[in-house]
Amino acid sequence: MSAVRVAKPSKRRPPTRKQLGLEPRYTARKFRPYALAIGEAMLSWNDLHEELGMLFWTVSGGGFGNLPLGIWHSITNDRAKRNILMAAARASLNQSVEREKKAFEEVKWIFDKVGELAGDRNAATHAPLSSTLTTSDVFPQAGFGNRLAQKLDGRDVLAEYRRLRDTAILLRDYCGRLGDAIARARATLPARPKLPAR
Known about the structure:
By secondary structure, the protein is mainly alpha-helical. The protein has seven helices and two strands, in the order H-H-H-H-H-E-E-H-H. The N and C termini lie far apart (57 Å).
């Protein structure tokens, strides 16, 4: 039997950002459009989830909001919140009544679209951005293996953040119109919005 050679850990430290020529200060002017776009996208995402909470209240039967909103806000994970919205819609919207069946399909459509958008939200929130000391370019720092940065690599990052913002706003507004229509028994359900393409 031959002995297995185990590599010794290297005593060399990884290079610093300065040694790599990367801009370490996110307060630099070149980062401001990115900070603004990320902020707008996150505020829109948060507002969308507040409106989803209102829709949860509606499909849970309406009335006083303390119980459904207490449940909604006790959950700290956005995906879990969306899951209870779907459970409430499935339980409360009668699938044998055409209008309620259509309302359920619309809640499911919102659920699916927000779920698709969640990956973009995670990339916008968690992908590291960088720049070099000598240029004004800002780019996802994908070279060290960050999967979320790799997802944005080669794309127009500002356009991605703005699409996330605009999509969240359209879904939020539609969610509000749908909840209002569901609450009023004879109201016509709203038409789905056309969402921005990638």
